[in-house]
Every structure is written in C-alpha cells, then in structure tokens.
C-alpha cells in the first residue's frame, strides 16, 4: 500500500526531468534485485518498491540499480572507487548510489541507511546525504537488514535537488518548520576523538556559525562506544532473524560481508539483547532531553578521512579500530534514536579532494526543519556555490 505518501496535488509533476539511481536492495520492476548477494544473482524485481513507484509517479526516471555491500553489511562498497580520490573508498553500503550521483549518472540516489549507509558515502564523495525520521518513508519492497533501524533516504550533489525530492515525496507537517533562531549544540568531547583532519575544519565551521550570529552551545552526547555497541547488538539480532530460515548451502551464497557478520554462531543471548534494548532506551531519553535544549545538534559525519581501499583498520585518538566501527561511530546515533540526519559537505574548509562533512540532526519528525536549516546555512557559508 502507498497510503503513507499522498498523491500529487498539482497537474505538473514536481520531479519531472530528474533521474535517480536505486540501491540494489530496493525492488524495481524488471531490474536486478540482488541486495549484493550471489544467492540472489538471478532475482529480478516483480514490482516497484513503494517509494520507487511514488518517485516515478512524481515524474522522476530510474536510470538503473546501483551496487551495495552484500545485504547492507558493510561500509566500503567493494569494487567501487571514490570519484574524488581513487585511492579511497566510496563508502557504503549505499556507495553505488553515491558514485552514480557524484559522477553525474543520476541527479539523485535512493538508498537505505541502517547505521549511516547513506551519510557515510555522502561524506566520502562530497555529497548531501539525508536520512529522514524513522518511518517517514515506507519500506515496502526493501530487502531488510535490521527493520528496527532501516531507513530510506536520498543522496544529491546540491541542496536544491535534495529539497525538491524531499518536498515532493515527504510533505511537511504543520509543526515541522525551522525555528526563526535555531539553537545549535555540539559536543566538544567528540572532537577530541576525531582525527585532526576532521576536527580542525569542524572547529572552523563552529566558529563561523558564532560569527554569523547563530546561537551555538555545548552539550554532552550519549557515549559513543555504548551507542555503537547497543546498535550493533540489536542490528545483528534482527539480521540473524532475517536470514535464519536459509539453508546452510544458501548461507554460503551470501555476500562475504554478510557471511562475516552472521557467522557469530548461535543466536545472541537474551540477556545481552535486553541490556542493549535498555541502553538504547536510555540513549533515546538522553537525546530527548538534549532536543529540549537545542533545535539542531551537529557533529562531524565521520571521525576520520575515508579509509584507503583495502584498509581494514583506522586509528582514532591513538586507538586502532575496525573501519566499520570507526565510520559508524557518530552516524548510528541517529538510527538508534530515529531522528532525521543530513550529511553536509563544507568545501570552504577543504584541504584535500574530499571536503569535510558535517552531520546535522534534529528531533524525530523535524525532517523539513533540518533541510531548511541547512539551506539557510549553506547560503551563509558558500554564497557563491550552487546549493
């Protein structure tokens, strides 16, 4: 059913002329729907996913499906190179959608985001990447990873395209508007656990906000390690359920990233899952309290530069971490809490081919407020740039 998204109210189709790519875990009639698994290599979509169908009805045209880490397990999109720096990953698991948009093959990309899978490749490829509030877009026709955290969302080269798409497919509600003087908060402690190539541009960005007359304060975000752990346990528990009924021979035909994630043996202990649930509730309540004091929370999207192709570990604050754990360190918070989050490139402070990226979050349901804030922000920061 398409009841979550009302039909167009104007004769002119609002997305006419725009093209989009579709992540390969989202069904498109007549096109491959493999979710990155060899097991599904011959599977073809029978009908369009709910949101794909809606985008078509609004005038947008599908140009093809884009590669993904198998089942969404991963952040590298194997086989793809970053169009801004070929030595580095394009990010994942919506990396194929990011590359299609960054190279001009599509005007925007439709992807999924369970721990940061839209925002991570957006940050890697210098794009805008938007994950709406949990449940804002229906997941009918999407191959799941963890339904508790799965979101559909979009990638675009500029804010005008992103705004156009979101305005068409996700109409604003009366209470979803940008405050006249938004209260902005960030956590200085998070910067201490970022690489200096990320922390320094972010500090310049925060200073610029203050110089522009915006109210910026400090806040303490939930513990990063506890957030990643709770999110990881609950994601794995749900993913095990998704693949539980597969025969052993079928498990061997899943993608490598999925096999690695699912090979942990027996189902997770109930006590471990319960602790993760309790921690996620606690984190959600902490974020509610923060959003009572701030309209917008900002962090770096990634704590490090995109890793090199083949690089398995990165170092943050003297600690070596698996690349996946490092790249989702800040993005997974928005999935755990269901709040809208937008990765924003800030080329003004770029010192390499890949611009720094800032993640902007707001309370659940404030999707258009996030977009409006960023639109205003980018006019202040990059007045000469096309936004």
Protein architecture, described:
This protein has about 375 residues and is α/β, with parallel strands linked by helices. The chain is built from 13 helices and twelve strands. It has helices spanning about 50-55, 95-100, 120-125, 160-170, 190, 195-210, 225-245, 250, 255-260, 270-295, 325, 330-335, 365-380; strands at about 20-25, 60-65, 110-115, 130, 150-155, 185, 215-220, 295-300, 315, 320, 340-345, 355-360. A ten-stranded mixed β-sheet has the order 2-1-3-5-4-11-12-8-6-7, sandwiched between helices. Strands 9-10 form a two-stranded antiparallel ribbon. A hairpin with a 2-residue loop joins β9 and β10 (about 320). α4 runs antiparallel to α13 and α7 crosses α10 (about 270-295). It starts with 18 loop residues before the first strand and ends in a 6-residue tail after the last helix. The model has no long low-confidence stretch (mean pLDDT about 90).
In short:
This protein is α/β, with parallel strands linked by helices.
Mean model confidence by pLDDT: 92
In angstroms, what is the radius of gyration?
A: 20 Å
Q: Structurally, how many domains make up the residues?
A: 1
The total beta strand count reads 12
Q: Based on the structure given, which CATH architecture is correct?
A: Alpha-Beta Complex
Give the biggest beta sheet: 10 strands, mixed
CATH class: Alpha Beta
Shape category? globular
Classify the beta-strand content into a percent band.
5-15%
CATH superfamily: Amidase signature (AS) domain
- Written as H for each helix and E for each strand, in order along the chain, the element string is EHEHEHEEHEHHEHHHHEEEHHEEH
Total count of helical runs of at least 4 residues: 13
Strand order of the largest sheet: 2-1-3-5-4-11-12-8-6-7
Distance between the termini: 34 Å
The percent of residues in helical segments reads 25-40%
Q: Low-confidence parts, pLDDT < 50 over ≥5 residues?
A: none
CATH topology: Amidase signature (AS) enzymes
Secondary-structure class: alpha/beta
């Amino acid at each position: 059913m398409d009841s979550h998204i009302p039909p167009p109210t104007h004769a002119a189709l609002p997305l006419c002329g725009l093209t989009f790519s579709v992540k390969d875990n989202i069904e498109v009639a007549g096109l491959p729907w493999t979710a990155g698994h060899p097991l599904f290599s011959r599977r073809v979509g029978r009908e369009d996913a709910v949101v794909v169908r809606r985008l078509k009805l609004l005038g947008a045209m599908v140009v093809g499906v884009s590669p993904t880490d198998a089942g969404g397990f991963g952040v590298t999109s194997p086989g793809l190179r970053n169009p801004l720096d070929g030595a580095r990953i394009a990010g994942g698991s919506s990396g194929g959608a990011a590359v299609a948009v960054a190279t001009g093959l599509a005007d925007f990309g439709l992807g999924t985001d369970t721990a940061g899978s839209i925002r991570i490749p957006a940050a890697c490829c210098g794009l805008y990447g938007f994950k709406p509030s949990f449940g804002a877009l229906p997941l009918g026709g999407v191959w799941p990873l963890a339904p508790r955290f799965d979101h559909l969302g979009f990638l675009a080269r500029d804010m005008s395209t992103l705004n156009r798409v979101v305005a068409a497919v996700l109409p604003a509600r009366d209470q979803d508007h940008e405050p006249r003087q938004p209260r902005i908060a960030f956590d200085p402690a998070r910067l201490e656990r970022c690489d200096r190539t990320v922390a320094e541009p972010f500090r310049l960005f925060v200073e610029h906000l203050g110089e522009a007359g915006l109210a910026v304060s400090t806040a303490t975000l939930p513990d990063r390690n506890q957030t990643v752990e709770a999110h990881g346990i609950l994601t794995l528990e749900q993913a095990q359920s998704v693949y539980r009924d597969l025969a052993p021979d079928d498990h061997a035909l899943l993608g490598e990233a999925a096999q690695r994630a699912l090979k942990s043996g027996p189902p997770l202990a109930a006590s471990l899952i319960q602790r993760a649930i309790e921690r996620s509730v606690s984190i959600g309540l902490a974020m509610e309290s923060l959003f009572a004091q701030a309209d917008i929370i900002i962090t770096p999207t990634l704590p490090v530069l995109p890793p090199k192709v083949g690089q398995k570990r990165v170092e943050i604050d003297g600690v070596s971490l698996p690349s996946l754990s490092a790249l989702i360190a800040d993005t997974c918070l928005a999935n755990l809490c269901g709040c809208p989050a937008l990765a924003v490139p800030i080329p003004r402070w770029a010192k390499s081919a890949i611009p720094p990226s800032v993640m902007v979050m707001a309370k659940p349901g404030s999707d258009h407020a996030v977009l409006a804030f960023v639109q205003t922000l980018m006019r202040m920061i990059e007045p000469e740039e096309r936004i």
